[in-house]
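We modelled the chain as a single entity of 447 amino acids. Its sequence is:
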Amino acid sequence: MKLNTDKQSDWVARSLKSVWHPCTQMQHHETVPLIPVSHGRGAWLYDKDGRRYLDAISSWWVNLFGHANPRINAALRDQLDRLEHAMLAGFTHEPVITLSEQLAARTGHRLGHCFYASDGASAVEIALKMSFHTWRNNGQSGKQEFVCLKGGYHGETVGALAVTDVALFRDAYGPMLRQAHVVATPDARGARDGETAADVARRAAAELETLLRDRGDRIAAVIVEPLVQCAAGMAMHDPSYLAEVRTLCDRYQVHLIADEIAVGCGRTGTFFACEQGGIWPDFLCLSKGISGGYLPLSLVMTTDAIFNAFYDPEVARGFLHSHSYTGNPLACRAALATLAIFDEDDVINANRGRAARLSAALAPLAAHHAVANFRQRGMIWAFDAVLDEAAAANFSRRFFAAALDHELLLRPIGRTVYLMPPYILDEQEIEGLAARTLTVFEQVTGN
């Protein structure tokens, strides 16, 4: 892909000189140019030359209702004239109270306490610390270990990396990390001959039980990404796994942390992914879509029992954790506007129809001879490219560049191509997304 104007080239040159871009080997931008984004509208991003790109991954899974959404914009304008920020230690404000109440109501008040931060990794850190400290306050200070799943991803801060099993992110920092126990993933792609996804879930749960039986008195919590392990290549599992893990955590007195940072807020077909397993965790982490993709916001929801473990006259028994922008009023108003759209537009039900239409449009890809493991959960679609080693080299970057030439923002994970579009696609956009994804796939794979 080539930049078209001197203005675009100037933006790119300035950015490469001064901005260190995330999750990027900067040298690659010598051959794959940055896209200088000018503005966004609906499902589309526009560059400085007026070229547009359908944001088929919701800008890293955050923009649930597209860019420049009028209702979220209006809420933020209103809040700007009221209160932009105030510290949440010793103070409170209406947006954070109302947001906490509304989220608690969506769990039937099973998770009635919200602790706020700014990003997903910070929410995971909070949940890990809360679990550790809860056991300590309850006189079980020996419970200091954590369990994660093979291929699990929970963020890139030091605590979150300790429960992440993606070598690309973790290995460079191994000496800094406290090792967690890694148990089998329930990824349905691991099914043996004759097995169902539920069988894979049972096998994975049995391995977890063996560990908990041996070390339950030392383990504080198990952390899972409910239904879809995103960074593991959109590894999807049967909902029964969540029920199995909840039962095991109860049996061996271990906390369950549900990392719904990517899979919450309707992405898997229910507002909370845990709902499909019929369970509630001890801690539920939210971020990404909760603010509609507008402002950094994350939070941990937890139970009365956890909250009460810290409720004490002694300061040291409190949860002494803070972020400067905790519960920022603007971010909370964006989140409240996002929740209002869910209710006003009956988004969960509307997405079922939208998902069915996109799945039908993607049928030629699902049947393609170079596609394996085509899968879908809610508003997430993924498939694995069948490639030899030569064709697999740099597949992700080549696909990304080719997709841009076809007005698509798609960013594969290894050989896995996935779609996580905003919840606003119309019929034309659905058909275009499916057709162009097929075209790009055939172009890149040489089929």
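As a brief sanity check on the tokenised model: The first strand starts at residue 37 and ends at 41. The domain at 6-68+346-445 is CATH 3.90.1150.10 (Aspartate Aminotransferase, domain 1).
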